[in-house]
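In response to the reviewer comment on reproducibility (Comment 2.3), we provide here a single inverse folding case reported in full, input and output, so that an independent group could reproduce the run without further information from us. The structure tokens appear first.
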């Protein structure tokens, strides 16, 4: 294994993945129309009470993140959209959405939403079989399985009456409530994308983890989600005089609405 190349790949993947996490709560759109609907809905949520004791520091980090998003990641996202046909992009996004089924299942069960857990399981089965491994969202053709609200651990904590806590902006990761930040960490362990896979060589387990494959999977997932996530981020801040306030309030209001679903 070339350690230097591996470190470069891991660093690049982390940069992309953390930047897209700013809008991770919003499901990557399957169509441009759906993406526009998400933007319209985003502005309808009431702004929750906000605890932002770290605002001076958060603003500095926000400016740094904004520079990286706009100058590095947005051009990369636009290049991806130009180079990859829409049908392929949607297929990749659908595949990774399907792969995150364990996060939605566990979160639904922890909230006592057993009907929703059953719907998620049905969606996973339908999309994994008829949908060719999740490349096609065939579950959208079934009324009972269409538009099922997604769940994650941050939402679970909210339904448990755990408050959002202070707002925090981390370098590259972006901003979120401290509750959702803890939830993201938990989601990473539940999602297959965060699992460590052992290397298979000469029909035997090597005892090492296949970092190269994991890096490629994570990078593909992140790049596929960048256009939608960054477009939402840019639209959210674009019409506001204070970009920091707009992104902060919009993010927290959206998460409050998700917890209520």
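Designed residues, in position order:
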């Amino acid at each position: 294994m070339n350690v230097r190349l591996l470190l470069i790949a891991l660093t690049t993947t982390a940069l992309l993945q953390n930047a897209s996490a700013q809008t991770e709560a919003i499901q990557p759109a399957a169509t441009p129309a759906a993406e526009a609907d998400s933007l319209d809905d985003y502005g309808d949520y009431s702004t929750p009470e906000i605890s932002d004791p770290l605002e001076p520091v958060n603003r500095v980090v926000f400016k740094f993140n904004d520079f990286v998003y706009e100058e590095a990641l947005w051009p990369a996202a636009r290049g991806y959209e130009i180079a990859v046909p829409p049908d392929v992009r949607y297929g990749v996004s659908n595949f990774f959405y399907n792969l995150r089924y364990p996060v939605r299942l566990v979160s639904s069960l922890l909230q006592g939403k057993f009907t929703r857990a059953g719907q998620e399981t049905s969606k996973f089965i339908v999309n994994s079989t008829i949908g060719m491994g999740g490349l096609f969202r065939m579950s959208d053709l079934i009324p009972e399985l269409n538009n099922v609200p997604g769940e994650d651990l941050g939402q679970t904590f909210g339904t448990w009456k755990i408050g959002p806590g202070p707002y925090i902006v981390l370098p590259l990761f972006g901003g979120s409530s401290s509750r959702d930040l803890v939830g993201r960490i938990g989601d990473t362990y539940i999602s297959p994308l965060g699992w460590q896979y052992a290397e298979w060589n000469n029909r035997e387990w090597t005892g090492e983890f296949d970092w190269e494959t994991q890096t490629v999977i994570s990078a593909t997932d992140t790049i596929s989600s960048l256009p939608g996530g960054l477009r939402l981020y840019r639209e959210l801040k674009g019409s506001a005089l204070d970009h920091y306030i707009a992104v902060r309030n919009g993010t927290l209001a959206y998460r409050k609405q998700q917890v209520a679903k």
